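Shape matters. As here.
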Amino acid sequence: MACRIERADLRAWLHEPMPVMLVVYDAVADVAYWLYVQEYLQHLSRFRPDQGSADVTLRIPRVNVVNLTALRQFARCRDRLLDQMKGLRHSHEE
């Protein structure tokens, strides 16, 4: 499944600290598909956030159906990132 997204939105999503899951609903088939945006963009060797057309086509695998298994996977992604952030300290001092 293909989905056109504005490049400006992708730039913003790349700076999000939490996982961004794009969900696209196919009303005819009554099914929703998902894409882990930051991970997807990291694997696109030719993607440049600040270069190119205003829109970017993302390819969402049809196996990425939103269901209970997917929701659990989303939570695991979030939890892994939170674990990585433990010990992170914000400070204006060097």
In short: The longest strand covers residues 21-26. The chain has a mean pLDDT of 88.
